[in-house]
Amino acid sequence: MQNTENTVVERELELKLVLSPERSVPVPARLAYRTDDPYAVHITFHVGSDHPVDWTFARELLVEGVFRPCGRGDVRIWPTKVDGRNVVLMALSSPDGDALLEAPSAQVSAWLERTLRAVPPGTEAEQLGIDDGLAELLATTAVSDELWLRDPWPSEESQDGDA
Q: I need a labelling partner for 147 at 20 to 30 A (CA). Which of 47, 93, 127, 129 fits?
C-alpha cells in the first residue's frame, strides 16, 4: 500500500573535502532521505559557490559503505580511521571532476538508522505503490486483451465474417 504522507529525514553536518593526505577543507553538507524516493539518499554540498552541488545514489550503497568498501564507478564508499577517528570516505566522480569526502561515521550511521526506521529495508516498493499500480494496470489490460488478439486489418481471405 502506498504511503501518501511523505517523510523527510535530514541531517546537516560538516564533511571534509580531502585535497591531499595532509590537507582537507571543511564542506557543509545536508543528508536527506525522502520516503517518496525510498531507494535513494541525497547529499547537498555547499562548496562556496552560488549553486550547491547535489548527489543522489542508492541508500543501500551508503548503508553498506559504513561497514565495508562498496560501489563502483561514480560512487565508491568505505569505512576507515583517520587520526584515530572512525570515518566514512566517499569518492565521487563526474564529468565535472572528482572529489574525496570524509564524513564522521557516528553521525552518518545515526542518520541512516533514522532512515531505516522510516522505511525498513525490503519495504521500499510498498512506499511507491508499485504492486498496487501493477495490479491496476494488469486489471485493465486483461479486459483489453481481447482487442489485442483481434486482427486490426482483416484480410480478404477472412472466412468468418468478422470484417
A: 129
Mean pLDDT in residue range 30-56:
90
SS (H, E, C) 21-79: CCEEEEEEEEEEEECCCCCEEEEEECCCCCCCEEEEEEHHHHHHHCCCCEEECCEEEEE
Assess whether pLDDT exceeds 60 at residue 126.
yes
Torsion of the alpha carbons at 67, 68, 72 and 76, rounded to the nearest 10 = 60
* Predicted confidence band of residue 145 (pLDDT cuts 50, 70, 90): low
Cell of 111: 542518520
C-beta separation of 32 from 38 below 8 A: no
pLDDT top residue among 21 and 49: 21
CA atoms of 120 and 63, how far apart (whole Å): 12
Nearest to 106 by CA among 132, 89, 87: 87
Distance CA(129)–CA(32), nearest Å, equals 21
pLDDT of residue 46: 83
- Measure CA of the first residue to CA of the last residue in the chain; give whole Å: 44
How do beta strands 23-34 and 85-94 pair? Answer: unpaired
